[in-house]
Amino acid sequence: MSDRFFPYAFDWRYAPVWLALGAFPGRDGVTLTADGELRARLGWFRLRTPLANVDGAHVTGPYRWWTPVGARLSGSDDGLTFGTNARQGTCIHFTERVGPVLGARAHSALTVTVADPEGLVAALLGAVGEST
Questions:
Q1: How far apart are CA 117 and CA 36, in angstroms?
Q2: How is residue 87 annotated by DSSP?
Q3: Which of 2, 14, 52, 88 is the most exposed place for a label (fewest CB within 10 A)?
């Protein structure tokens, strides 16, 4: 497998928020590496974990207009979001918590608003199947 990059679907209405975070279209997104790692980047925020640590993934959304953009913690659990739009994303669940990236607790899940959420789910589930 070669590296697979899934760029974020940036909504230009939220440009001031993601630019303030140092996020840029074409550079930021989720990479599944050939050496078996998941790397997510949104500006200065980064999360890395082995693909073997992925326990599942599914498409989520749409989201409330005031909550989707930026790097933030979930209000209901220890999940992390790297968001760039309110339309749709991929929620990735981990076997072992990762981080912490934000806050004091490690994260059991990461939601990312990539341009191809279904493709990311398929790639993750395929990679997890290959590693077992």
A1: 19
A2: S
A3: 2
The full set of domain ranges for the chain reads: 4-131
Length of the chain: 132
Calpha distance 40→95 (Å, rounded): 17
Report pLDDT digits (tens) over 13-52: 888 888 898 999 999 999 999 999 999 999 999 999 999 9
pTM of the predicted model over 0.85:
yes
User: Which of 72, 66, 88 lies closest to 13 in space, CA to CA?
Assistant: 66
Q: In angstroms, how far is the first alpha carbon of the chain from the final one?
A: 15
89: left (phi > 0), else alpha (psi -120 to 50), else beta? beta
